[in-house]
User: Which sequence fits this backbone?
């Protein structure tokens, strides 16, 4: 896996994945940025949420659950000193569908957290306290 991050201006960068997708990364105006893209640490959270949601959807589809929507809401706390690493991250999954079995949803979230989500497991091994929960919306 590869990526390239190219400085464009101020504290703005163009990050391009090895698969050819690009995203602008920028800082807040008070830090010299123009707010044209997410901050680097926000990207990390977005990657974590995407990685875990990917697992949850894949597992639920394999269990033949009729999912119509999946949302991962992520909240994080950071250390007050430099480096301002994440200290706590909470992922809240909102799973919408028809006749969803709670046991399947619970197991999908657990499997992502404990076995499949590389981002979550890596951050947890680095000492970040990561928690997960879910809610089911019948549609």
Assistant:
């Amino acid at each position: 896996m590869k990526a390239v991050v190219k400085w464009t201006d101020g504290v703005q960068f163009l990050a391009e994945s090895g698969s050819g997708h690009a995203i602008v990364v920028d800082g807040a105006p008070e830090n010299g940025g123009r707010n044209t893209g997410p901050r680097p640490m926000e990207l990390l959270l977005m990657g974590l949420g995407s990685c875990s949601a990917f697992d949850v959807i894949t597992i639920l589809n394999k269990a033949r659950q009729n999912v119509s929507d999946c949302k991962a809401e992520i909240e994080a706390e950071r250390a007050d000193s430099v480096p301002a690493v994440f200290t706590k991250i909470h992922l809240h999954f909102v799973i919408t569908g028809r006749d969803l079995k709670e046991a399947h949803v619970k197991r999908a979230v657990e499997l992502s957290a404990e076995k499949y989500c590389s981002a979550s497991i890596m951050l947890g091994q680095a000492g970040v306290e990561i928690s997960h929960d879910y809610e089911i919306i019948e549609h």
